[in-house]
TrEMBL record:
Residue ranges crossing the lipid bilayer per the database entry: none
Protein name, per record: Phosphonates import ATP-binding protein PhnC
Keyword ATP-binding: yes
Keyword Nucleotidyltransferase annotated: no
Domain of life: Bacteria
CC annotations in GO: plasma membrane
GO molecular function, one term: ATP hydrolysis activity
Alphabetical list of SUPFAM superfamilies matching this protein: P-loop containing nucleoside triphosphate hydrolases
Organism: Actinokineospora fastidiosa
Keywords from the named record: ATP-binding, Nucleotide-binding
Gene3D superfamilies according to UniProt: P-loop containing nucleotide triphosphate hydrolases
Domain ABC transporter: start-end pairs: 3-245
Amino acid sequence: MEIRLTGVSVTFPDREHPALDDVSLTVEEAEHVVLLGPSGSGKTTLLRCVLGAVKPTSGTLTVGGKNPAKAAELRAIRRCTGVVRQGNDLVHGLRAQTNAVLGTSPSWGLRDWAAVLRGRVPARYAERVRTLAETQGIQPFLKSQVESLSGGQRQRVALVRAVLPEPRLLLADEPTSGLDPVTAQAAVHTLREASGVTVVISTHDLSIARQFPRVVALRDGRVCFDGPELSERDARDIYEGVEVGT
Ligand SMILES: Nc1ncnc2c1ncn2[C@@H]1O[C@H](COP(=O)(O)OP(=O)(O)OP(=O)(O)O)[C@@H](O)[C@H]1O
């Protein structure tokens, strides 16, 4: 799904400076983009705008041609979108594998509900859950209650939940935070494997950013870099506040 922002600004109440400041950006259908930038630069705000959780103060934003600020259009966007949130939002009291299949619930029939209510994975998702869980290294924990998992293990369950329904758009806010280098790499692999899917992730990890074909960097709510290759100098400029490319 294409994401198109035109002159988008967001100023939160009681804030002097905008969180997003006149951002114009197009992410093409099936493009994989990483958002980079210092803490507080506006990455999460941008992702939340795409999800309709924050409304632009000015400017226009469309996702697959739909306006996420309108409830009916937002529902259509959310139906095709997988999300991995910072800190994630798994349902406590349920097994990891039950959480992993929750994103597919709109298409459940009676048999699927019956399986889920018994804590099992519906048969038609079993193979893919197993494959994804193996890639993410969470196979041994699938039957555990999510609250007994570590932060990194929960993060990986959230990633499986996001990709399992085969969404057209995948948004991930720091999906590798809290993961060790090997599991972080597995998470990136799963996201990069989503061919034909529009993928936008935010990260602070330059080695992860460099694995994506396009890097968009924000600083003080503005786009300060947009390109395919991030040099050491560009990275330093983004984080040290120097004008990129000067
Ligand atoms: N709900 C809110 N109310 C007021 N200010 C907010 C709100 N959400 C974000 N902000 C402010 O907007 C700015 C951008 O925040 P945002 O979370 O988008 O940054 P970020 O780049 O994702 O940071 P990080 O890398 O630390 O997650 C910050 O100054 C933040 O304090």
